[in-house]
Amino acid sequence: MLTGVIAALWERNARPEQVTPRTVFFLNGGLFEIQNRIDGFKRSGKTVFVDIDFISGISGDEDSVLFLKKSGVDGLITTKLRIYKQAAGFGMNCLLRFFALDSRAVERGIQQILSAGVKNIEIMPGLVSMKVAPRIRSLIPDINIVAAGLVDTEEEIDLLKRHVDGISTSSPTLWEYKW
């Protein structure tokens, strides 16, 4: 589902024609603008995921998840397992952020994704994915893994793509990378 290079959009005024990847992550925004952004990128044939944790005017409750579902997003991004479960319960795609800060955080995160049946994760920082993703795949072979954060070069993507399905980056230069 989430494969190749994914455009991580911090710029609220980014236009679909400026974005090469087919999949985009909206990493910020506000309640009054999000619908127009979603509509514009969807009309351009893009797959749109919205980070529910960073949209002002939207909280992490069930109504917010339903609001974004009705807005036409293809999926949500969150750090909160509760929101991930709500989205999955509504039949939505969701990506759970997985912070690999140290070995204890990795162990706790793996237990969380195993117990909750998580299907899509984003490992941060991305370069740690080379170490963490193989371990996760050995336990959950069909999990979709995206690497994000601190991926700066095509050489790093070359190394990471051996271990992950996709890479989320805000670098327009890396959006041109051919997976």
Can you give a write-up of this model?
- The chain is of the alpha/beta class and 179 residues long.
- The chain has a single domain (4-175), classed as TIM Barrel (Alpha-Beta Barrel).
- It is built from seven helices and ten strands.
- The protein has an eight-stranded parallel beta barrel with strand order 1-2-4-6-7-8-9-10, surrounded by five helices. The protein has a two-stranded parallel sheet with strand order 3-5.
- β6 (75-78), α3 and β7 form a beta-alpha-beta unit.
- The protein starts with a strand and ends with a helix.
- The mean pLDDT is 96.
Based on the coordinates given, report the CATH architecture.
Alpha-Beta Barrel
Structural class: alpha/beta
Q: Give the termini separation.
A: 14 Å
Helix content: 25-40%
Biggest sheet layout? 8 strands, parallel, barrel
**Total strands:** 10
Question: Mean of the pLDDT scores?
Answer: 96
Question: Secondary-structure element order, as H and E?
Answer: EEEHEEHEHEHEHEHEH
Which strand-content bin applies to the residues? Answer: 15-25%
Instruction: Estimate nothing, just give the exact number of structural domains.
Output: 1
- Which regions contain 5 or more consecutive residues with pLDDT less than 50? none
Instruction: List the strand order in the largest sheet.
Output: 1-2-4-6-7-8-9-10
Class, according to the CATH hierarchy? Alpha Beta
User: Which oligomeric form is depicted?
Assistant: single chain
General form: globular
Tell me the number of helical segments per DSSP (H or I, 4 or more residues long): 7
CATH superfamily: Aldolase class I
Q: Could you name the CATH topology?
A: TIM Barrel
